[in-house]
Design brief:
By secondary structure, the protein is an alpha+beta fold. Helix content is about 40%, strand content about 15%. It is built from 8 helices and 8 strands; from the N terminus they run H-H-H-E-E-H-H-H-E-E-H-E-E-E-H-E.
Length: about 220
Amino acid sequence: MKQLHDFGESEEMYLKTIAELASEQDPVPVTWVAERLGICTVSASEMIHRMEDRRLLEHTPYKGVRLTEEGCQRANNIIRRQRLWECFLTDNLAISWDHVHDLACRLEHATDAVVTEALAEYLDQPTTCPHGNPIPSTSGEMPSPEGIPLVDLAPGEGGVIIRIHPVSAVLIRHLSSKGIEPGKEIEVKEIAPFDGPQSILVDDEMHVLGREVAAHIIIRPNE
């Protein structure tokens, strides 16, 4: 069977995961990569060493990993495929925004460049996915993201949710069940003592979010 790409699905998952986690910490700890992929640290380290040999990333012992320029470009191409499929599934098949992530993740590994660009053209070149995140360009460049994490806001502050990042199926379904999604107005009403959870207001309903969850909700603050 002809391979669509010159590196495997496993490597693609590592590249995409490291690129997404790099927005939280750079370099990315190997333990974070392993946890996100649901594997042991030893297995993650073995793959990372192989990818380092291919010059897709740089590994600094006891600190973490950072994608090389080539690795970053490849990661963004993978992210582009996934986010375009998310747009297609939502806009054309009417699949809800909280169910398209895993479906698109499977499709991205079976999509070559010709199909990717035909999909982008069919969708009229969307700039963001249903979760509000920017879609990288054809050349693998990621637009500069906007917004700040909800977790950084103080009581009385608020804004509009513009994206959820990084995305996971569990996180999206949890937020969707509370009516928390891009485009919604959100306001922090209270923060529990000792860096505790936030009480937030969305659509006149109060919700309590842990700080780990709130860190994934990116908003455009009110002026």
